[in-house]
């Protein structure tokens, strides 16, 4: 998970503190959510004539630090 995704998780209050350390609740689900959001954004961009699906999706995955 990249820094942007961590910041967004904090803003959404999807973290907790355990023994002085920050822990993300169900990190794998948070990463899956990021992946689904990227895919949905890509679809919207393509539907509106904003470019090539694979190129847009890859750029969004990189931006959010999502592994495919």
Structural overview:
The chain has a two-stranded antiparallel ribbon. The protein has helices at residues 3-11, 27-47, 53-64; strands at 15-18, 21-24. With 68 residues, the protein is mainly α. A hairpin with a 2-residue loop joins strand 1 (15-18) and strand 2. Helix 2 packs antiparallel against helix 3. Helices cover 62% and strands 12% of the residues.
Keywords:
3 helices; 68 residues; elongated; two-stranded antiparallel sheet; mainly alpha; 12% strand
Low-pLDDT runs: none
Judged by helices, strands and strand pairing, the structural class is: mainly alpha
Q: How many helices in DSSP terms?
A: 3
The total beta strand count reads 2
Mean pLDDT over the residues: 75
Order of helices and strands: HEEHH
Question: Major beta sheet, specifics?
Answer: 2 strands, antiparallel
What's the N-to-C terminus distance?
Answer: 12 Å
| Share in helix | 55-70%
Strand content: 5-15%
Strand order of the largest sheet: 1-2
- Alpha carbon gyration radius: 14 Å
Query: What general form does the structure show?
Result: elongated
